[in-house]
Amino acid sequence: MTTHVTVIGLGAMGSTMAETFLKAGHQVTVWNRTPGKAGALVALGAHEASSPAEAGELLVISQLDYQAMYDSLGDVDLRGKVLVNLSSDAPSVLREASDWVAARGGVLVTGGIMVPPPGIGRPGAYTFYSGPAEVVTRHTETLKAISDVTYVGADPGLAMVFYQSQLFMFWSGLTAYMYASALAQSAGVAPSQLLPFAQETFGGIAGEGPMGFLKYLTAEFEERSYPGEANSLHMQAVGMGHVVHAFEEAGIDATLPVALKRLFERADAEGRGAEGLGTVIESIKKP
Ligand SMILES: NC(=O)c1ccc[n+]([C@@H]2O[C@H](COP(=O)([O-])OP(=O)(O)OC[C@H]3O[C@@H](n4cnc5c(N)ncnc54)[C@H](OP(=O)(O)O)[C@@H]3O)[C@@H](O)[C@H]2O)c1
């Protein structure tokens, strides 16, 4: 079914989304704050609006943050419009934005898209959506052009809770790999020598085997019980101190290892050193 989609924001993400909607056969209107970014899309059949007021009923927004939506649509009549905002921001900002759109007669669907531009419209791409379920369902067929639709709940902040959780794991996991590679390189070990062990570690953590800590910890989080007989947090806090020592003596940055050491030591000092590593979550919940 052909739908009219208006894409607001023609950065790396928005322009790829507009192109993907066009290729899926939709009628596409585009608008960007700074003119001059729509040429290639117009050549593919998009209509370039001179103002966001020309938007149709369905708007897909991809901008730097939610402030950009206020700046762009502050003067636009939103009655009857569905705004699907795929920009990044904090959950509370999304909740306020939902009220802001509703006060102007529109409906906000919030989304966190989990792929970079080359992944848009490709198999495996997915987006966390939150907001009114019936509105998401009504537009699912159209939205599926850019990615799978993963609906996570009515609270408009939820899309970003899932998105930020995923991004945090992505960035901190990869930064840990950068620290590990820098440590290895400081001793003359080539990054390619470390790679198979990094693959073993990341794969094992996510897997079903004896290193399948994601699964073990999830069960512990749900039970709020952290058995530590096999490997106590205290032992791991001391071990984290050894990691910090290794970074410091190598003469490389130790910011991330020091942050982990402090966190482990705080959980230990709070009296839970005999429990397992999972007990650290209790310290995270109470800063
Ligand atoms: N790139 C990725 O890999 C990726 C992946 C997932 C999610 N995201 C999220 O998707 C969103 C867009 O990312 P991007 O990579 O496309 O960013 P980008 O290339 O930097 O584009 C940013 C867009 O926001 C617009 N914008 C910024 N401030 C504005 C304002 N005050 N008023 C109106 N328009 C404004 C820009 O317009 P001008 O052209 O006028 O500056 C541009 O269209 C971000 O929230 C990002 O976190 C990105």
How do you describe this structure in short?
By secondary structure, this protein is an alpha/beta fold. 51% of the residues lie in helices and 13% in strands.
What does this protein structure show overall?
- The protein has 287 residues and is of the alpha/beta class.
- Helix content is 51%, strand content 13%.
- The chain has an 8-stranded mixed β-sheet, with helices on both faces.
- Helix 9 packs antiparallel against helix 10 (255-272).
- The mean pLDDT is 97.
- The chain binds NADP nicotinamide-adenine-dinucleotide phosphate.
Bound molecules: NADP nicotinamide-adenine-dinucleotide phosphate
End-to-end span in angstroms? Answer: 50 Å
Beta-strand fraction estimate: 5-15%
Sheet having the most strands: 8 strands, mixed
Given helix and strand content, the structural type is: alpha/beta
Give start-end ranges of low-pLDDT stretches: none
C-alpha-based Rg, rounded: 23 Å
Could you tell me the CATH topology label of the largest domain: Rossmann fold
- How many separate helices? 11
Question: What is the N-to-C succession of helices and strands?
Answer: EHEHEEHEHEEHEHHHHHH
Helix content: 40-55%
In CATH, what is the homologous superfamily of the largest domain? Answer: NAD(P)-binding Rossmann-like Domain
Mean pLDDT equals 97
- The CATH class of the largest domain turns out to be Alpha Beta
Q: How many E-type strands?
A: 8
Query: What's the architecture of the largest domain in CATH terms?
Result: 3-Layer(aba) Sandwich
| Number of separate domains | 2
Shape: elongated
Q: Enumerate the strands of the largest sheet in spatial order, edge to edge or round the barrel.
A: 3-2-1-4-5-6-7-8
GO molecular function: DNA binding; NADP binding; nucleosome binding; oxidoreductase activity
Family: Belongs to the HIBADH-related family.
Keywords: Oxidoreductase
Pfam family, one: NAD_binding_2
